[in-house]
Amino acid sequence: MGLIEQIGQWFDERLQLAAPIREAAEHPVPRNTASWFYVFGSAALTVFLLQLVTGILLALIYVPSAGEAWRSLQSLNHDITLGWFIRAMHGWGSNFMIAIVLIHMVQVFLFGAYKFPRELTWIVGVFLLLMTLGMAFSGQVLRFDQDAYWGLGIGASIASRVPIVGPLTVKLMLGGPIIAGATLSRFFALHVFVIPGTLIALVGLHLLMVLKLGINEWPMPGRLVKRSTYTSEYHELTKRAGAPFVPYAIWKDLFFAGFILLAVAACALYFGPFGPTGQPDPTIIQTAPKPDYFFLWLYALLSLLPPSMETPALLIGPVLVIIGLLLLPFLSGEGEKSWCRRPIAVLTVLLIAITLGTFTHLAEFAPWSPHMNAWSGDPVPPQFLHSKTALERQGSLVFQVKQCRNCHSLGESGGQRGPALDNVAVRLTQDQLIRQVIQGGGNMPAYGKNLSPAETTALVAFLETLHPAEQAPARDYSRGVALGESPDTSSSMRSSTRP
Amino acid sequence: MPNENVLSRRGLFMKLGMLFNGVVATALAAPIVGFLLSSVTRGRANGYLSWVPLGRVNEFPEGETRLATFRNPNVMPTDGKTVDTACWVRHVQGDEFQVFAINCAHLGCPVRWFPQSGLFMCPCHGGAYYSDGARASGPPERGLFEYPYKVQDGLVTIQAGELPTPGAAIALLKDKPPCGAEKDLVSIESGKLSISSGTNALLERNKTWA
Question: Do A13-365 and A374-497 have matching folds?
Answer without folding.
Answer: no
